[in-house]
Each structure stands twice: as structure tokens, then as C-alpha cells.
Amino acid sequence: MKVKDPSLYNEDLAPLKKEKRNWNWLNYTTVWMGMVHNIVAYETAGSLLGLGMSVWQALATVITANIILILAMWLNSAAGAKYGIPFPVLIRASFGYKGAQLPIIIRAFVAIFWFAVQAYLGSKAVGAVLGALIPGWNGLSSIHFIGLGLNDALAVALFWILHAWVISHGMERVKFFELWAGPLVIVLGLALVIWAITVSNGLGPLFDEPSQLTGGAFWSAFGISVTGLIGTWATLILNIPDFTRFARSQKDQVIGQAIGLPGTAIIFSIMSIITTSGTIIAFGRPIWDPVELLQQFGNPFVLFLGAFALLIATLSVNVAANVVSPAYDLVNLFPQKLNFVKAGLISIVVALFFAPWLWYNNSATIFNVLGAIGGALGPVAGIMIADYYMVARGKYDLASFYKKDGLYAYKNGWNVKALIALVIGLIASFIGLIIPALKELYTYSWFLGIGFGAISYIFLMKSEKISNSNFENVETTI
């Protein structure tokens, strides 16, 4: 019996050695700060006011979503920290080494989609900086290229190149880049909050803006907004092991994520909501696009500093949240041909074909897209969590992840029961779109997906003859 199959193994997929598991709680805090302090997170929180919510309603929505998020993150983080292996390897335990490719491809597709969205929004900050520095830059907008003005197209290209520079040095550069990128955006957020309080003559008027949603209208908006906010991080719920595999200890990743995700995410969302409320008072309408808001001040110095902070923030989140995951996914698909850096560079090239500048527009679109993403990935998260805690009882056979005749071979590499559970979860997620009479259920697509995916997987696996309970040694040599 082979110890490891080369089609399932390379250095990026192998369990990390102890000396490389050196991320402490501060690293996880700053990584999450870098990920949550970004333009999409700012716009998503601020656009709650655009949906008609009051400040208090928006805050309640954000807090609820983040509490649910951290619970899901914690549940799916433990195995990565325990075994030192990434998501594409861990998911072989539930789907089989061949069956795992299906959720891996879905997750990679969604992550690359998000990369495209974030990169486009970040390129607007690049364009704002260049417009403030280079005379005649904005005049290039009269020349059109791939659906963009030439200035915007050049900004997109420059921002893509910046991503390639960060990716080119692997995960270590990601860790150190995140260490200072996240805190920088807090400074910008605080400055905008101070402006909002000043223009409103105190916090009172900001929180007194009435809600346009009452009764059933609010609860419908609340449901789709919570689902949408969770959908923002639906890919990270799956591939959080790609980060926690570097953890020095379980305690480090638990504490670091607790501070970084619900902690700084809620604070940043509060900043966004307060600032957006201030724009209603100052300009008579909610402005949740931070680049547009900075341009309203008419001060080149303010625009330059603010846009630079947004540029760093978006670069930070895009690499950590939307390049790391598809890079590992592609390495898993072609372990003998790709490594992390090559796969990451391929991911950002593919992302260009999503062309978000042709369709990205308003708050309603944001939440509809986020809801669909959450609904698609929720069942996979449910199956992974159910497999680790309920089926495997917290014990995996490390060697079997890299063998075609091991515990996770199932039938020719496919666990048909996991695929059935995935289909059941997807039907539950999108039943509201399939049957008009049940359209309200689509509001909770992620919850239905993760719940039905997990429950159906547990039920189907009860008859599974193979048990993981005999594998006590979590440090099996491969």
C-alpha cells in the first residue's frame, strides 16, 4: 500500500510541520482586521440604511450576523489547526478524494468571483489617487476600453499587478502584510466617524434618523441582510482551515478570531453605519461608496490619504480571503503542476473574465448576490462540520487523506452520500426560487442550506460501515 499518492499530495497540501505552525492570536486578529476592513464590508453595512433601516436596526443586523459567523468559523477551524492541513484536503474526509473536487470547484469559482468584485472596487481607489496626482488623468475617461474609460481600465490593471506582487511571496507575505494593513483602515474609519458626528452636531441626529421599514417589511429585510452578511464570508467559513493550519495552538486561533471577526468587524460596521447616516444629513441621501464619499469633500489631500487607505484595505482582504482559497483549490486539482504562487496568479487572471464593472451597481443587487453565494456554500459547510464532529468524532486518519485506498476512498473516490446531502442542502437553499409560494424561504438560504446539508449527511452516514473512531493518533506519519 502506498504511503502517499502523488496525485493527492505536494508540499502545499501536506500537513505543516510544527515549526511552521507559528501564527499566534495577534496574527489571526490582524488577518481578520485586514479582511473585514474593506470596501465591500463598508458598503454592505452602510447599504443597510439604503434598504430603509434605522441605525439601530442596522446595528442589530450586523451584530446578529457576526455572532453566527464566528460560531461557524470556530466549528470549521478546529480540524485545520489540529492536523495542519488545508480545506481541499480536509474535505476529502466527507466527499472522498474524487468527490471533493465538486465542492472545491464551486468554492474556488465563488472566491475568484469575489476577488473580481473586490479588485474592481479597490481599483476605484487607485483611480482616485492617480486622479489627484496626475493632471489630465480623469480626462482619459473619454477613451473606452473593455467597457471602461481608459483611466479606469489602467487603474484596474495596476491594482491587479499589486495583487500579483503580494501573492508572489506566498503565505508569509500575506501574514506580514495583514499585520499593518488592517489597523490603517481603522484610522480612516475613525476620521470619517468624527466627520459624521461633526456635521450632525453630535451622535443624537445620527441615531434619530427614522426607519422606513416596520413590521413584516423589516423582518424580511433583516433576514435577507443577515443571510447576505454571512454570504460575504461564505467562502471563508469553508476555507478557514487554510489559515488555522498555521496556528500555534487552538487557543491562539480561537482568541484571535474572536477579537478579529465579531470584535473589529462590528466596530468597523458601526463606523460605516454612522458615517452613512452622516451622509444623509450632509448630502440628503445615503452614500455608502467610500470613494464617492471622499470625492464629495473636494480636498485632494483628504482624497489621497483616504483612497490610499482603501487601496491597502482592499488589497489586504482580497489576497487573504479571495486568493488563498482558490490557490489551494487549484493546487489540489493539479498537485504535480502547480504550487501556491502559480495557482494564485492563475486565479487573479481568471477573475478578469467576471468583468464586475459591467454589472455591479446598487444595494439590492449586493444582498441578492450575497444571498445566492451563501445558499450555494452553506450545504458544504454543514457537511464538513457534521462529518468532523458527528461522524468522525473529532478524529481523522491523517495518512488516509493522501491515499487512494485509505479510509476516505469510499467507492472509487466518491462518497455518494455526501453528494446526496449536498443536493438536499442546495434544494433547501433555493426552494424559495424554485417554488414561488415559498419565496420567503429564500431569505434564509444559508441557514436552510447548512442545516439541511448537515442533518441529511448525519442521517445518511449512520449506515456507513467504516468508522473513524479507531484512529487515535492525530500525528500519523505520512
TrEMBL record:
It is a multi-pass membrane protein. It is found in: Membrane. It holds the Pfam family Transp_cyt_pur. The chain crosses the membrane at residues 25-42, 54-75, 104-123, 143-167, 179-197, 217-238, 259-283, 303-328, 340-360, 366-391, 412-435, 441-460. Keywords: Membrane, Transmembrane, Transmembrane helix. The keyword NADP does not apply. One of its GO terms (molecular function) is nucleobase transmembrane transporter activity. It comes from the Bacteria. One of its GO terms (cellular component) is plasma membrane. Belongs to the purine-cytosine permease (2.A.39) family. This is Nitrate reductase. It comes from Neobacillus cucumis.
